[in-house]
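3.2 Worked example (two chains)
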Amino acid sequence: MCEMPEILDRADRHECVTCGHEWPHAAAPEARDAPRVVKDAHGNVLADGDCVTLVKDLKLGGGNQVLKVGTKSKPIRLVDDDHEISCKMDGMAIGLKARFVKKA
């Protein structure tokens, strides 16, 4: 889950003000046992080892560098974090949200 202290409490979920990550108030027990499915911006299911490309320019935090739309990643790894994808782009290790990528 997000570690930022600025959280909005909605009727059915929590939302991080900083990154926009959302999660339910209390996950149902059957939802915790189900395998995690991560989908890209177009609804394609992603798996470890897939390559993805950016669908939007992304400004990197901590600097003024921008990853341009169409930048292709090395094979990805899915992680249990608020940023679902861990990969390398342009020689940098980064974490991405699946909504900003499409399967290559």
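3.2.1 Second chain
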Amino acid sequence: MLDVQTLILLIPVILLALTVHEYSHGMVAYRLGDPTAKYAGRLTLNPLSHLDPIGTLMLVLVHFGWAKPVPVDPRYFANPKRDMLWVALAGPASNMVLALISGLIIRYANTNPALFMSSTLGHSLLAMIFLSLQINLALAVFNLLPIPPLDGSKILYGLLPPGYEHISYNLERYGPGVLFGLVIMGMVTGVSILWAFIGPFVYFFSALFAGV
């Protein structure tokens, strides 16, 4: 169970990570010709427009969660299959950028410790930045898993050669149930199969971006 202090630091990190993730989906779709997100009021950095209560709670409790999906209409795209791939990739890519920025700040803090460690506020800010690194990496890698309805399933569809799209269609039938089952299994048993896949990537990029 998270203590109150960690929860206070974690909430703004989660809000930023989810908001930027969904905004990036909508903005790339808009740039590619789809105004659906704009008309729905989702091209905004206001967290209240993107939050899914259950998904946010899951992210706080088990570090796997989601926001309210940005509406996208592929009929507006010149090349729906290719353009949906870019829209799907935009969310995880935005979280990787936030993780990189967080990592660079941590590297700077390690070479200038007096700037952050000399006060309670500075110490709390550095802790929040470290959480930002971890949460954004976990969110990016989690969403890249090719399990519907995660972004990775749409990226997989965009990469499949013509004639193999049925693989993606079959995944859509069972993916949500499998994903939910894996999350619940991890909560009940304390052994997360998802984290077994995601954890090594989080550790690798934490070391690469922040040196920790």
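3.3 Remarks
DSSP finds nine helices and no strands in the chain.
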